[in-house]
Design brief:
alpha+beta; 3-stranded antiparallel beta sheet; single chain; 15 helices; about 50% helix; 5-stranded mixed beta sheet; about 425 residues
Length: about 425
């Protein structure tokens, strides 16, 4: 018999080792499922389901698509990426894939001091004051759209309301009378296009915008665009490129995204009788409904940043120069931050939402967008509370390119209209 009996087996060590190996296998398997992650080729429900599976196991996966990029999906990581612009740069672009001649649209694709310069010029066009002044015009537009649909017993909220109001609102605050359909068509095609098509559509909107500014320089009206036409950089007037980057941002950022939000909100309210009744009983809850629709159905699944140096996130090393998708929609569904994140609720702390961005690049047009969507819901609840969604099941959200998504059709009928 040996004088040195065998050391007892430490079952705890075995269990920990097995658990570690199992976790590593799970992470590797999940990471593999993200290799071809690209919203251009995926259904939104599939993307959301994959994200929820990955949160705890692989919170910063890598995709080989769109030039290769990491994905931030959890709320804390996304807020960090949006806040720390010195670490996660907006430049050279917030869209992917990158091109050598990528076009910068507005301040959101620039860092200070350039972004600060452009924001200071743009904010006067879409701030709270401008939004309040435009509200009666927007309300009249909403009423016209509703009356047209009611007159024929129904319609589709996407082309007959959602796509109309945001562009009209932008034209109201900017003081442009003609070209709404052109601006909508081109901006919509621009957001859904390839990078080559993006440049072509940008040029078309840039030329349209320059004509408007040239007219204001020759015939000033004392409005926002007249002031923008006389704005200077140093001792010179702004040039074609500088005007274009702001005007195209107004059209693209303010039209398609707000249109998508309008329709998402109306779906949530009119598919949930209890929510609709809450809003009918207490109209002061309407702004909360707007914020909740944006939280749950953000029109942008995500936008991109580039690391300026080596960075660690969730135990993953991100080399300098890495593209990182900041998934707004995923962050706004993080169960660590939002209880029952897939439910539509009016009692949340919306200060935690990244619906209008976060940090120095938060959305300039948020006051205008909030006003538009609020007015739409106010008018429908007041005039058409019995509007019926003519759907066989849940609506279909589709990705349209550049990681944007929206409901593509929303047929409705109007049994009763109040006057």
């Amino acid at each position: 018999m040996s004088d040195n009996p065998a050391k007892p087996i430490d079952r705890g060590d075995q269990a920990r080792a097995a658990s570690s190996q199992a976790c590593a296998r799970a992470r590797a398997e999940m990471a593999g499922r993200f290799r071809d992650f690209n919203t251009d080729h995926m259904q939104r429900d599939d993307v959301l389901a994959l994200i929820e599976e990955a949160r705890a196991v692989c919170p910063v996966p890598w995709s080989d698509e769109k030039g290769g990029h990491f994905i931030f999906m959890n709320h804390a990581d996304v807020r960090r990426g949006l806040r720390d612009w010195r670490d996660f740069s907006n430049e050279p672009s917030t869209l992917r894939p990158l091109r050598a001649d990528s076009i910068k649209v507005g301040p959101s694709e620039r860092n200070p001091p350039d972004s600060t310069f452009y924001r200071s010029l743009m904010v006067a066009g879409v701030n709270h004051v401008a939004s309040r002044e435009a509200e009666p015009l927007v309300r009249a537009d909403v009423v016209r759209c509703l009356e047209a649909m009611v007159a024929k017993g129904g319609g589709d909220l996407v082309p007959e309301l959602g796509n109309i109001i945001p562009v009209a609102a932008i034209f109201h605050v900017l003081g442009i009378e003609n070209g709404q359909q052109f601006a909508y068509d081109v901006s919509n095609a621009m957001m859904a296009s390839t990078m080559e098509g993006f440049a072509e559509k940008f040029a078309a909107l840039a030329d349209f915008s320059w004509q408007v500014i040239e007219d204001r320089r020759a015939n000033p009206r004392g409005d926002y665009l007249s002031e923008l036409a006389q704005a200077k950089r140093g001792d010179r007037l702004l040039n074609h490129e500088e005007i274009a980057t702001m005007m195209v941002a107004f059209f693209t950022a303010g039209a398609n995204t707000t249109a998508a939000l309008i329709v998402s909100l109306l779906y949530e309210v009119f598919s949930r009788q209890a929510i609709k009744q809450q809003l009918l009983d207490d109209r002061s809850l309407i702004p909360a409904a707007v914020e909740e629709a944006l939280r749950l159905h953000h029109p942008f699944f995500g936008i991109y940043r580039m690391t300026t140096h080596d960075i660690e996130a969730e135990g993953v090393q991100l080399p300098a120069g890495s593209s990182v998708m900041m998934s707004w929609q995923s962050a706004n569904r993080d169960p660590a931050v939002f209880d029952d994140p897939t439910d539509f609720r009016l009692d949340r702390d919306f200060g935690k939402s990244v619906g209008f961005g976060y940090g120095i690049h938060s959305c300039i047009g948020a006051p205008l967008a909030r006003m538009e969507v609020r007015v739409v819901l106010e008018e429908i609840l007041a005039r058409c509370p019995d509007m019926k969604l003519e759907l066989d099941g849940p609506p279909r959200f589709e990705f349209h390119g550049n990681d944007t998504n929206s409901i593509i059709t929303m047929p409705v009928s109007f049994p009763v209209i109040k006057t």
